[in-house]
Amino acid sequence: MADTETGSEIVTAALLVIGEEILSGRTQDANTGYIAKLLDEAGIALREVRVVPDIEDEIADAVNALRRRFRYVLTTGGIGPTHDDVTTDAIGKAFGVGVAEDPRAIRVFEERYPGEPLSPGRRRMARIPEGAELVANPVSGAPGYMIENVIVMAGIPRIMQAMMEDVLPRLEKGRPVASRSVRVDAPEGNVAGGLAALQQQHPKVQIGSYPFFEETRVGTYVVLRSADTLLIEAAITELRAFLVREGMEHAEAEKEVSKSD
User: Fold this and answer.
1) H helix intervals, the chain
2) Is the pTM of this model over 0.85?
């Protein structure tokens, strides 16, 4: 299992999005951006996102591949009450452990719905892999769980977000990654060569370029990211020097920059 990246204090993670509805386009994934932002603020770098169907073997294979490469693997989807919710069985298969009704999960349902008989659907959601710790779900009660470095959560955004409130304090934190961005009033192609050279000189700073379009002109946002603010400052000083030499107007950007800008 990879705890941290070699030579850094950044804890890494992967996200496994589970569900036919995501792959078919019937449902838009609303969870990835939310999880990525929370992890980034905690100094946990989301390095990979995979989407797999509700097929037990494919889920198990993906979990096993990811949990050996990253400090944490988070999954969303497939832990509901219906026959096609097979994530829990897949997790049991991935870890080689049994899956059964968990007394702790049963107790959660009994306390939440006192006097009501436990329906087959709720009993199905009370099935937890052996050795897992429960993740609280204050929205509907049905728990998620953590087993070693794998965190299994619901796919419904409101429930997943509530689960993340319980999950995040349990995770090892790294150094938060700082970000600075510079707006350049020139096409991306004009700055590409200089940025390539800058990246070679500053390998511990992630340097990205993102074109933008405003009516009659185009420009580029240059984003510099690192856990070390001094390294960012050194790189941004050289970036400004390059832009001045090339006669490109530029200014510190105040907005968050993404690929969609």
Assistant:
1) 20-24, 32-41, 56-67, 87-95, 103-112, 120-125, 157-167, 188-201, 229-245
2) no
